[in-house]
Amino acid sequence: MLKKILSVSGKPGLFKLISRGKSLFVVESLLDGKRVPVYLRDKVVSLHDIAIYTADEDVPLSQVLTKIKEKEAGKTIDYKSDIKPEELKAYLATVLPDFDKDRVYPSDIKKLLAWYNLLINAGFTDFSDEPDEDSAEELAETADAITDKAATKPKATASAKKGTTAKAGVKATAKTAAPKSAPKATTKSAAKASVRGVKGAKKG
After folding, report:
1. What is the pTM of this model?
2. Which end of the chain has less Cβ packing within 10 Å, N or C?
3. Tally of structural domains, the chain
C-alpha cells in the first residue's frame, strides 16, 4: 500500500498516486482530497522507500507504522503540537527501542506521528508492503519511476562523510541512475523531501 503513498517536497501532508504519465504524476491529497499534478522536477519519495535508522539494521517505515498501529489499537495518536523532544524520543522507544538516537531527530519522530495520524484518518490501516488491488508489476513500475527521476550519486558533503543521510533519521532508498529528462537531485534531497517536522517537508 505504501508504494502509492507519496511525500512531495514543498507540499504539506501526503498524497496517493492516482495515475502517471510520461512527465508527471496525478496525485490526490490525503488532507483535502484534491487532485494535483506532480512533475518530474518535483522531489517525490514513496513511503515504501523510507526506512528508520536503528543501531543495527534500518527498519522499513511500513514496519514502524504497523507497530504504532498495534500500540494505539488502530486509533490516532493523541499528542500536543508542542510535544517536547524527550517525549517524542520516549514514544518512539516504545515501538522501536533500538532506534538510532544520534540520527533520528525529534522533528523526524514528529513527522512520523503526523504521517501515521494522517494515514489513519484517511482510512489507510494496512501498512504492509504487499500489493493491494493493483498488480505487482504496475506498482513496481510506479516505484521505479518515482525513484529513478530523483536519484543520482550523492555529492560528498560534511554530513555524508560522517555517515548521515541528509542529517535526518529516515533514509530514502533510490536507484543510482536518473533519466536524462529528469533534473539531477541527490539522495540527500530525496531524504530531505521525506522528512521535515519527519525532515524536509512542511508541516501538514
Report:
1. 0.66
2. C
3. 1
